[in-house]
């Protein structure tokens, strides 16, 4: 169904948000207790819409690609995230106002203050300040309330612009230096700030009555999938490539969340982990998508200081090397198809590659599907190549092999470093630490072994620090031998690489609201949410023209047909006018209306109304329901779906 | 589809559990890190089964009854659970072995030790000890490893039996007395135990960077629904009764979970909160269910020391007052229909009423749907009448009215206590506490006001302790006046009562596995999971007879038809024998097989196999797919669904 939006009313975020709260799409959680920043509840229409989006996601990805869906726990022991790197690196930098106790996210604060100074400078120079210019930054409500018109030196302007271009790349101490150098203070009070400290974004808790098993709420569903890798591979009869998938809540203890559904502390994710042979990242279904044309913003363009999109087919993008491989390209195209299906505007969708300094610690490459909203371009789907990072670190930590094996067409000779331990000497020398030292040595990588071999040769010993062992550990050739060894292999054993499309469902849901919200011509009050029928919370509004008992049997009849067909519907038999009843449901995104009038009582005919065009057609109950089914679930358009029905003018 | 189980193999929990783990229905979470008790991951077939159960639940309850589904957060601030009573009362009693540090759940320990002594006594008396007798208690792995044959005095036996009959009703200090009196120690070491202390079962964490907003992970989804009551009522156009519903994870920090999926720390719940007028708990659709015959175990029977079930219709149960009201009866019948639909054995299902001493702190009446398993009778669905408890306490705490209003057919006169404050005197007297005292006074119940009025009259003052105010607060008639006042009301304002059907999905899922697991005649190795087609993880296994390229086009053709019809299927084109391939899928609960042979290549005909009976029929691709659809999604039985297909003997 193509959306016809006959309007002359400009988009207003405020009126959309009022609608979403008034009709309980969502609301701040615990509102009667004053609410908690970054926590939101979905009411009936929001929840139904979200469920439908998930249902489409499951069919589009899991069913279509035979993915292995798993449901893993959110409670996760400390060790898992220590290994994955989240304990050390999943954090933001915050600084505190010593006096008021107020806490700021350091990068956001520096960014906002410098931006406001640049704006003040422009005003002082008499240049007009376009609001659009910094729409990307409106993601959060401003801390800086007032812009002061102060002219800056030209070299200062240049320096600020330079800082802003790389704002996502600074470390905490660097942010601290910027804060001092540029005299950045609490914008509200001018108060001094403490140097930035790291704040880990995971919520922590403890499992069990003794309280000594430290745990976190997961910040992503991915780890649960990686830890089950061996079971999944076995379930898949040891065949590669394959993908697992998981839909569930994750958590981030944001420092100061302030952008509605776009930055929340508890959120629904849908994540795919597609495991591939690092030597073969081709995709068998790549041909199906290679002609899909998309708009890309690659790393190189951004690094040259531009935001110009490059439009090309996925096939071209892969063959020219801009997108690294077919599997990555395939998922980018499938993500696009999914987003369009659930109501994203293709003209407000781009794929942006991460720059090297903004990538998550586990990623080797990443393309984000970004949706354009009144807050700017919003990252809604990440499509990262996590390489062999996660499987490798968990394997090294637990001693459990997480690998796939492939018979070689021809045997091959490999040279590898092998380590040999004089185990009998370990006990006397290391006593209670012997097992730890052994385990540590046996889980070293090839690179590390090469390094050890060199050291042993050059210095006659290795000195190492080992987790869980006090003091330095010294090893000499009496204890270990490291040699390069030739072996003939018939089977290649490898740690799979992972391509991870990761969807933030709440952000997508909010963006669709923005893309599909409009108001009818000359009437800003008559908001419409043109949600695609497939994902609309309710598909049909049943409207009897009057409360007359004559119409009741027809209402019952239509209801029972709709219920039998499992088409979600609502009845509105209130005394409000037909127009008012439809207007209320336009706000809820209900795509169809069935009007029951006195003619219906005579011949079982009813009127079918389409939400966006307000066009009406008439036919028998079964014809009308059939049209609704075809348009909603089979993707037929309105004209074709209602071809056999008569036009109707009320 | 009626299940035909041609077997002579007795049920074995061990072989079922092996199957469930081998085929990755579920597995301990973080197994490569050693696992965490009470946390489990669902693998592909378990996850798909669970999703299908949820899908049926949503259609059976939410869609059928027009319930308002919400999705609320798991992170919940301290205040909410302080008010709801969970901070003070949602706990178990635990005791610690001073020496080993081992922690026991006090009631379970007392129960287990006394039971083992009674068993030892029976053995010593030469009586046979039936295992069935205490199957209810097998829910957890035993702490007591060895039963000693020691004869007890007759009065001791009687005392132990008495204690066990009321074991769910003891307070912590009472359990402590029992432990001392009956010399109960650590069963493994004989070591002394510390007196029981209360352990709150909620996981705690903190929200925000300052760490001062204390929060819990919810132990139930209910509170999120209660807190949104006003928004839900408004969404429902202020009409009563109505129900909200929520599907999501909840958490319980169990002291020592040891019964697989039956006692876990993170679990999926589906909860309904049906809000009714306390003066009218009739249900408009009660007539539809009144003839459903169920097996009840009411409070009175249990209190008389019996476990005999009473079989009667829901209509009778309500009219004789055993089940309190129509709404409760309606939901009991609907719960029954749901459980049967997804594969529970009706002969292993009963409704047990809670005894007064075991009810949750918020409940005024409760019936559990219990399923019988090898662990005994397991509570899987609670159907509680929470009365006005939750809405009242949240309203009192927040000052937000959580009520419904109903126009009275005739105005009526009511007498109520009203409180009048001499506000001008509050400031000078209470200073900074004035607002707190005022708010506290204005949120008192009628009973409390009556009590105050009496005290004011008798003693000329009231002395109260108020949260947040230091010291006692003294109030006299100069400050407050409390009088009984007559008013004429045209509208009745009331706090709705709540009927809450609450489903533990994991427990139901596990029970269905037990109810539907069996092994083929004379072959204990050939396990079958007879999951109903509607909820089976995969509906169809596609089996080409050979790997010949001749059969490939038919495999593709059948696949594309199944995919178009959105019927989940898998292809097994491995070189294993047909029999072996089917056996593997019997374990996965796949109800249908389509065999593709060389005949298929000629005339497009295929064979359809039914899992439980292994019956086969033959027809065209479209006929066979139509039969699968009818049986799976429309509930048609095998005989009727395949009437037009030809019998086939391979």
Please report the two chains with the greatest interface, counting residues with C-beta closer than 8 angstroms to the partner's C-beta.
Answer: A-B, 79 and 80 residues
Helical percentage of chain A: 25-40%
Structural class of chain A: alpha+beta
User: What is the CATH topology classification name of the largest domain in chain A?
Assistant: BirA Bifunctional Protein, domain 2
**CATH architecture classification of the largest domain in chain A:** 2-Layer Sandwich
Main sheet summary of chain A: 9 strands, mixed
Tally of individual domains of chain A: 4
Oligomer: homodimer
SS elements, strand count of chain A: 29
List low-confidence stretches of chain A. 132-140
What gap, in angstroms, lies between the N and C termini of chain A?
Answer: 23 Å
What is the CA-atom radius of gyration of chain A, in angstroms?
Answer: 30 Å
Number of helices of chain A: 23
Instruction: Give the CATH H-level superfamily of the largest domain in chain A.
Output: Bira Bifunctional Protein, Domain 2
Beta-strand content of chain A: 25-35%
Overall mean pLDDT score of chain A? 91
General form of chain A: globular
**Quick one: CATH class of the largest domain in chain A?**
Alpha Beta
GO molecular function, one term (chains A, B): ATP binding
InterPro entries (chains A, B): aa-tRNA-synt_IIb (IPR002314), aa-tRNA-synth_II (IPR006195), aa-tRNA-synth_II/BPL/LPL (IPR045864), Anticodon-bd (IPR004154), Anticodon-bd_dom_sf (IPR036621), Gly-tRNA_synthase/POLG2 (IPR027031), GlyRS-like_core (IPR033731), tRNA-synt_gly (IPR002315)
Enzyme class (chains A, B): ligase
Catalytic activity (chains A, B): 2 ATP + H(+) = P(1),P(4)-bis(5'-adenosyl) tetraphosphate + diphosphate
């Amino acid at each position: 169904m193509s959306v016809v939006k006959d309007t002359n009313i400009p988009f207003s975020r405020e009126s959309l948000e009022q609608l979403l709260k008034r009709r309980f799409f969502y609301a701040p959680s615990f509102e009667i207790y004053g609410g908690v920043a970054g926590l939101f509840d979905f009411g009936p229409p929001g929840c139904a819409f979200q469920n439908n989006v998930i249902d489409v996601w499951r069919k589009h990805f899991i069913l279509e690609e035979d993915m292995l869906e798993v449901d893993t726990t959110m409670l996760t022991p400390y060790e898992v995230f220590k290994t994955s790197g989240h304990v050390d690196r999943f954090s933001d930098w915050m600084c505190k106002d010593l006096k008021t106790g107020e806490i700021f996210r350091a990068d956001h604060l520096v960014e906002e203050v410098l931006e406001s100074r640049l704006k003040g400078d422009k005003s002082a120079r008499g240049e007009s300040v376009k609001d659009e210019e910094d729409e990307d930054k409106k993601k959060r409500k401003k801390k800086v309330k007032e812009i002061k018109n102060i002219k800056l030196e030209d070299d200062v302007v240049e320096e600020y612009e330079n800082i802003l271009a790389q704002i996502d790349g600074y470390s905490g101490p660097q942010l601290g230096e910027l804060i001092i150098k540029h005299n950045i203070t609490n914008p509200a009070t001018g108060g001094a700030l403490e140097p930035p400290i790291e704040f880990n974004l995971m919520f922590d808790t403890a499992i069990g009555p003794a309280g000594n098993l430290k745990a976190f709420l997961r910040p992503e569903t991915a780890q649960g999938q990686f830890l089950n890798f061996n079971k999944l591979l076995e379930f898949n009869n040891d065949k590669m490539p394959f993908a697992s998938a998981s839909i569930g809540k994750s958590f981030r203890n944001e420092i100061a969340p302030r952008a509605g559904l776009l930055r929340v502390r508890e959120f629904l994710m849908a994540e795919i982990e597609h495991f591939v042979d690092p030597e073969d990242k081709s995709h068998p279904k790549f041909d199906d998508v290679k002609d899909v044309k998309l708009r890309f913003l690659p790393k190189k363009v951004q690094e040259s200081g531009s935001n110009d999109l490059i439009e090309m087919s996925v096939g071209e993008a892969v063959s020219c090397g801009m997108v690294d491989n077919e599997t990555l390209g395939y998922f980018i195209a499938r993500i696009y198809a999914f987003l369009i299906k659930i109501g994203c505007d293709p003209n407000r969708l781009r794929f942006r590659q991460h720059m090297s300094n903004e990538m998550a610690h586990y990623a080797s490459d990443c393309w984000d599907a970004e949706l354009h909203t009144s807050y700017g371009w919003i990252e809604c789907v990440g499509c990262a190549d996590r390489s062999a990072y996660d499987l490798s670190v968990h394997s090294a930590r637990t001693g459990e092999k997480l690998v796939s094996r492939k018979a070689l067409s021809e045997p091959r000779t490999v040279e590898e470093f092998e380590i040999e331990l004089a185990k009998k000497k370990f006990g006397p020398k290391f006593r209670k630490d012997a097992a730890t030292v052994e385990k540590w040595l046996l889980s070293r990588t090839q690179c590390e072994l090469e390094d050890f071999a060199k050291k042993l040769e050059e210095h006659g010993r290795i000195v190492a620090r080992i987790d869980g062992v006090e003091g330095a550990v010294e090893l000499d050739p009496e204890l270990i031998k490291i040699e390069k060894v030739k072996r003939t292999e018939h089977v290649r054993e490898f740690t799979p690489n992972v391509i991870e499309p990761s969807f933030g469902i709440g952000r997508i849901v909010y963006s669709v609201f923005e893309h599909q919200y409009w108001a009818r011509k000359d009437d800003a009050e008559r908001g419409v949410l043109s949600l695609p029928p497939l994902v609309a919370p309710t598909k049909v509004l049943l409207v009897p023209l009057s409360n007359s008992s004559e119409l009741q049997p027809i209402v019952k009849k239509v209801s029972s047909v709709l219920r039998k067909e499992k088409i979600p519907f609502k009845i509105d038999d209130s005394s409000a006018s037909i127009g008012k009843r439809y207007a209320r449901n336009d706000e809820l995104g209900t795509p169809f209306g069935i009007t029951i009038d006195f003619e219906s009582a005579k011949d079982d005919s009813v009127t079918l109304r389409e939400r966006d065009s307000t066009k009406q057609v008439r036919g028998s109950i079964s014809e009308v329901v059939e049209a609704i089914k075809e348009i909603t679930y089979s993707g037929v358009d309105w004209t074709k779906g209602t071809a056999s029905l008569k036009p109707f003018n009320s």
